[in-house]
Specification:
There is one protein chain. The chain is α/β, with parallel strands linked by helices. The chain contains three helices and seven strands. The strands form two sheets. Strands 4-3-2-5-6 form a five-stranded mixed β-sheet, covered by helices on one side. Strands 1-7 form a two-stranded parallel ribbon. Helix 2 packs across helix 3. The model has no long low-confidence stretch (mean pLDDT 80).
């Protein structure tokens, strides 16, 4: 009688599975440290209110009075088209304004005027919300 030398093993080898889990863990740890929730570092004004809103578009004004809509740097003339593009066809969007606390009020008013001009053109009810940091 002829016997085969190769026998089929029923046991599971989990060493490759643990390697895969370890590599996924390292990958997610590395990518999570690369994500920055605030693209522009600002020193926000302090407030005691805790109003939260769904943000559609974020406008940044840094300490050098540079405007940025989302990831796109712009000037005062480019605010309205970029905000309108970010809002799209929404009827009641929220534009979150993240302005450094050293920025003069006129720059904040420029953003509000741009949103109001979009509201007048489209007949919508978009609003501007000023982002603040909690009081210490």
């Amino acid at each position: 009688m002829i016997e085969t030398r190769n026998r089929i093993s029923i046991e599971n080898n989990n060493s490759t599975m643990s390697d895969l889990v370890f590599l996924l863990l390292v990958f997610f740890m590395m990518t999570s440290t690369l994500i920055s929730p605030n693209a522009v570092k600002l020193l926000l004004p302090e407030s005691g209110s805790k109003t939260m809103a769904k943000q559609t578009v974020t406008v940044y004004i840094d300490e050098n009075y540079n405007f940025q809509v989302g990831d796109n740097p712009t000037d005062i003339e480019g605010l309205q088209p970029l905000i309108a593009a970010g809002i799209g066809s929404e009827a009641e969007a929220s534009v979150v304004l993240r302005a450094d606390k050293t920025v003069p009020v006129q720059y904040v008013v420029n953003v509000i005027d741009a949103v109001n001009a979009i509201n007048d053109q489209t007949g919508s009810k978009h609003k501007v919300i000023l982002a603040t940091s909690p009081k210490k």
